[in-house]
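Request:
You are asked to prepare a plain-text protein record giving the amino acid sequence and the backbone structure tokens, at your earliest convenience.
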Amino acid sequence: MDPVSMRLEYFRLGTSYYVSGRFAHYANEVPVAGNLFHHAVEMLLKGCLVKAGVTEKERRALSHDLGQSWLTFRNHVPDPQLDAFSDTIVALDAFEDLRYPEVAAREHAKSGKKGGVLIGVGPGPHAPAIRADGKKVALYSADTDKIDALVIALFKAGSCNPRAFLPLGQIGENFLALHNAHAEPWGLRTLAQLPGG
């Protein structure tokens, strides 16, 4: 496949994961939402890396490591405005491990029998949780507002127009626009609630 088609395919897959992550978020399917957002950003970053000339072998060597993918991307795209998303990358990278139930079980066991894992996906920063006995609770957190902004920044860096990846069908577009301050680049208006809701 030629590089332009490959880049567009990464962005198509990234869009699918992203919209699915937004739906999972509103369906309260956490940590699945965080894992889907992780995969969305991974695909978009790798699409940007195709544009930068990074080979398939080099992209595959990055595996699912968002931290390494981000560093590689930043080496090719040193735009200082992208620094604002480094914390979002770190937060999303943690969700890759949560696809395995053993990870959450280990975190739970580390903090005692009262529970030790807090998973938050939604708008705004999520404060670290501390139990009544003073023990910290493992926090897996993803800020959807920052993810929405990151996705648009990656489309820009990858020279892709988000509108080219629509239509998604009415339900998909509704969940893409719901509480999304970055709906306009998709050619959508931000929705305060779902139609009929």
Observations:
- The first strand starts at residue 117 and ends at 122.
- The helical segments are 3-26, 32-51, 56-61, 66-76, 86-95, 101-110, 144-157, 170-177.
